Amino acid sequence: MHLNCHSYHSLRYGTIPLNELVEQAHALQLKVMALTDINTITGIYDFMKNCEKASIKPLVGIDFRNDNKQLYIGLAKNEKGVGEMNRFLTAHNLEKIILPTEAPLFNDVFIIYPLEIYPEVLKSNEFIGINFEQLPQLYNPLLKERIHKMVVLQSVTYRTKKEFNLHKILRAVDLNCLGSKLKETDYCKTSEVMISTEELLKKFENYPEIIKNTEYIIDNCNFTFDFTISRNKKNYTSSKEEDIKLLAKLAYEGMIFRYGNGNKEAIARIEKELKVISDLNFSGYFLITWDIVNYSLGQGFLHIGRGSGANSIIAYCLKITDICPLELDLYFERFLNLNRKSPPDFDIDWSWRERDIILTYIFNKYGRDHVAFCGTNVEFKYRSIYREIGKVFGLPKEELDELAKNKPANIHKNKLVVMIQEYGKMLEKYPNQRSMHSCGIIISEEPITNFTALELPPKGFPIVQFDMHVAENIGFDKFDILSQRGIGHIDDTVKLIKQNQNLDVNIKDTSISKNESKCNELLSQGKTIGCFYIESPAMRGLLRRLKCDNYKVLVAASSIIRPGVAQSGMMKEYIFRHNHPDKFEYFHDVFKEQLGETYGIMVYQEDVIKIALHYGGLPAADGDILRRAMSGKSRSLASLQKVKDNFFDSCKQKGHPEQLSQEIYRQIESFAGYSFCKSHSASYAVESYQSLYLKTYYPIEFMTAVINNFGGFYRTEVYVHEAKMSGAKIDNPCVNRSENHTTVAGRTIFLGFQHLKSVETKVANEIVKERNRNGHYLDLENFINRVAIGIETLQVLIFIGAFRFTGKEKNELLIKARLLLINYKPQNNNLLLIEEPAREYQLPHLQRAPFEDAFDEIELLDFPVSVTPFDLLKTKYRGDVMAKDLTKYHKREVKMLAYLIARKHVPTKKGDMFFGTWIDANGDFFDTAHFADSLVTYPFKGGGCYLLLGKVEVDYHFPTITISKMSKMPFIPDPRYAATDEKRYDTQNQIKEDVSMTQRAPYPQESEYNLPRQKMIN
């Protein structure tokens, strides 16, 4: 009888989580109920599964609304009905038009209009819904005549009085208004709660015809769904047989390219994989992926295939990945096996500039009726919850900031704050809005609207209304089409090398970028700024601790830095064993046999599964549960507990020492904090090494590419500094040389206009276009005649030195610009056939102080270019010790002067601590640790140069200074202001720093994890 139930998937409206909605129905002994969320089918598949467990007949549909105005409710008679509603809603979502007030003609859908609005003439499948509170209105003769078309409409939106208040808060958040400003029509009726069927029937006992109509709808709504069928596009060719034939042909052709003729190991592996792929009907998936990659290669695009797909030699032969599974001993079963319950997927990265071209190809090739992005539910987050609720209660901005930025325990409590925090707690994990999955694409055999309505987010590609987990549950294997800046660095560098040096670098040939002696040397020194994945302070420190001088160790390093491995202490143990291979024993033969390559340490997801199977004796199904937990796809506590119980029972039966089994399972559990599979680490290592190769041999072009792609670990200033250290000359933007992006000519890098504050892209592009059309600008007057520009933007260009080619001082140019623009009319700015000479003014010579340019640069770029920050200090002192000599000062106190690059905030039990990254006056990087006690007296005070005092600790070749005291050093007064002007020290405060936050605890010390280093036997 409950034909209009809302879950919390009715965004910013419903208050009941889906599983709890069904639990409530089960508690009230309901035998049937309908899920009709507002303008979405997001929850219907989970709803059906939950109803099946509760022995409830599920009805599914949609509550169609414009804004919050209910138009009609649709209930699907069958699968066709769901498709009809999806197509109807999709058309309006994609075309962004409002829904009609009357439903279209549906063949397999019942329509229920609310009593307040219904058409004069009802079709055979259309009814009027009436709530028990509205029954007195049936005394109206006009309504009484309609009883034969009426059904019981008991809507459900909330459960308790508190949830009703939460519903009103959600409505106010949605409407962006104060809670006190809500009108009755903005929120649901107080009667919209679930009641038992007996109670509902009793309320309608005088209207048997209404009950009969309701039962008629219930009896004729029989939507079912087979969750066991694959819904993907089935075949790439015309049949499964043709698919496997084509896949085999491509695999053997690719094998010759990768391995040459007659490689028996490769042939055996291909034959084995082909059988499994065929048995699991996965040849179409491989071929579609190959088709996408083949198109990309044809366009000259660079891609990186990563993830567990790199375990497949067929993927390697088809050029989907560049990881050789034979070289790294990657086993195919990690990607695809007959016991694996969930489908795998390929993760493929493109440059962020080229990804949309790939996506357009996929949508066009496979049909827009069959392709869509996965959706994702964006939940209310901690900070946004309190800010949003606080706005509903009318709190001022200052109090909203306090609520959002501080932990609940640290906020001054009053009745209102307590209420806001209480409702905020209720909203945790509630969906707030639907968005596009970052990379997951579905390619469906049937029209995709058979399963879901589509929506069109701002990015322009349609999305389904459910997330990747639901997609997997209903039979879709997604294709992960990703983008990242790292590939942009590589791709752009290759193009810049061709443009600047006329050299062709085939970076796709991984043989040139896996084992270069010069690259290996820089890798072991952690000189990897700008390189994908290995440029962060933590990663550079790890590379130095390992003296990582080859590709295989880099593969391991890419995984051991992950939270699961690092937090368990296994990262530090790996470092110890790598540096002291003669100072430990494998504590069980299984570890020597299975993990000899990594010194008996579990580093990859595969290692965990190997130990679970070979040491613990667990079945393959339990290994799959562990794999999913480690990859973050599923963390069923009940399933993991069962695995744990099985593990210890099996270890006991095998006679393993209990102490060792406890320690091993502790390590296994830590991997649930995320880790990489080996192939994923290998894929990252390939890309990291490609970046490093380019940086090593073509540093100026590489750093230019990094600057242009943004998105690295550090701010632009750091990459400009690294370019200088590589021998580049850095020039500020120039109207005659620069583009909007940064360019390189020989060894000179011209910063692009895009780095300047207050210069719009449109203006920058016009400067370049006009220069390309009609040649270089002759002088300031010529520029003003040709480019439509306001005085503010023109001043920025003058201050940064964009007219230095004129040979005139900035002060003179500024005065001249103002005089020229007094009578400026934008419509007159074009290239004159004969330019009238500008009136010449006799101007006094205005002397500029030596460092005025540097302060202009800080103001406009956030960092100085013409000098280093050290040149602007009042002090001439540069420290007693330089970064390159720190390893000689183990356990000794040093005093250094350094420029702050980045700091990472790490919460600890004793208070907050920071890890700092700095450069000294020579431009070399070093790292510091700042504990809570020292920070109380000597805190960070923003970007700039600091005097540092601390003790050096050299940990496996890597020095860190534990700071006891530090003080920010003042710049000279800004010479652009008078000596008495209060602004003379303001510019220093514009110097930036990179600040990152982590919620993880500091990595454990050796004494805390106490991992055995000797063989353990009974």
UniProtKB/TrEMBL annotation:
Residues 1-68 form the Polymerase/histidinol phosphatase N-terminal domain. Its EC number is 2.7.7.7. Residues 990-1018 are annotated as: Disordered. Keywords: DNA replication, DNA-directed DNA polymerase, Nucleotidyltransferase, Transferase. The keyword Protease does not apply. One of its GO terms (molecular function) is DNA-directed DNA polymerase activity. The keyword Nucleotidyltransferase applies. It is an enzyme of class 2 (transferase). Transmembrane segments: none annotated. It catalyses: DNA(n) + a 2'-deoxyribonucleoside 5'-triphosphate = DNA(n+1) + diphosphate. SMART domains: POLIIIAc. It comes from the Bacteria. InterPro entries: DNA_pol3_alpha_NTPase_dom, DNA_pol3_finger, DnaE2/DnaE/PolC, DNAPol_HHH, PHP_dom, Pol/His_phosphatase_N, Pol/histidinol_Pase-like. This is DNA polymerase III subunit alpha.
